[in-house]
Amino acid sequence: MKAQLRRHRIETPSWAYGNSGTRFKVYAQAGVPRTPQEKIADAAKVHELTGVAPSIALHIPWDRVDDYPALARFATDHGIAVGAINPNVFQEDDYRLGSVCNPDPKIRRKAIDHLLECVDIGIRTGSSILSLWFADGTNYPGQDSIRARQDRLADALSEVYGQLPGDMRMLVEYKLFEPSFYTMDLPDWGTSFAHCVNLGPQAQVLVDTGHHAPGTNIEFIVAVLRRAGKLGGFHFNSRFYADDDLMVGAADPFQLFRIMHEIVAADALAPEAGVAFMLDQCHNIEAKVPAMIRSVLNVQEATAKALLVDQEALAAAQAAGDVLAANAVLMDAYNTDVRPLLAELRAEDGLDPDPIGAYRRSGYQEKIEAERVGGSAMGWGA
Ligand code: PSV
Ligand code: MN
């Protein structure tokens, strides 16, 4: 169990270290990064204290730099790597009616060119994942042809897929609603799955845990996608209502455990299984670096509990049709306090057993608040 936990990898997102908020207010916090390099430094701190967060996802143009190999070297020098590259085709006026599904071919071309630019950035940073999310959709019945938009989406994805190097995967993320309210062009896992199947083996579905209707059984989706070889990865976060982007494991730790149980049961935890465990969160009111540490620990705790499930006892109870015994096997694991075991694991690996306490004692927060003065803090729209 410890060996599996040691190999587990959780990726943090660059955008979570910047200022964020709701459409009502973005609250500025002291010490927030002003450059992609400062975001990398924060992500490296999270990895230094947890030992399981060795990469950072980038969002382009938020993390645009002149020299991407130099940025990747900067990350390596700080002990982490560049992870998924996320193109941004949702923040320009041109994209009011969509990006790759826009009725205007010139705007579609612009969006596809940006996706191709991100493939190139991935090559230059040593990334193996192009992570796609489209805000595309419509607000009113009749606004555009649902079928034509699917055709445009398929054409764009296939052009970009054709440019992927052999060792790069394209992950296609779906979202039920927002920013569009009538149709989203990729609203659910089935639509993403259908496009990925048509594209080929390098295209897989990305499950963002905040992108479903309330009550959706996400672990079922995970199990089905994994079985079909199409589970590319996660954007973990938690939600009470819609796409709240709160800390993973905060709203529903039991759901996170159920998801990780499906991962463990399908032998999909190890890095070579090819499932990317990424966070996609916004820390609007809480301090960002310790919130990210808390989130990584929450995923690690859910994973440890999933690893505790007695698979043999579970299989026996299931085969015998013993409903209560099977359920009890899962609940025994979920109700086990794994924190002492994880503290022991960290101590064995030379880490502080209490990463949050270690962060408080490290003086890092005071240091970034003192140093990161002047310039403009990164955040939404930056
Ligand atoms: C959209 O809601 C999303 O989940 C996508 O992954 C974006 O890249 C990310 O949030 C940041 O806006
Ligand atoms: Mn996401």
UniProtKB/TrEMBL annotation:
GO terms for molecular function: L-rhamnose isomerase activity. Its EC number is 5.3.1.14. It holds the Pfam family RhaA. It is an enzyme of class 5 (isomerase). Keywords: Cytoplasm, Isomerase, Manganese, Metal-binding, Rhamnose metabolism. It comes from the Bacteria. This is L-rhamnose isomerase.
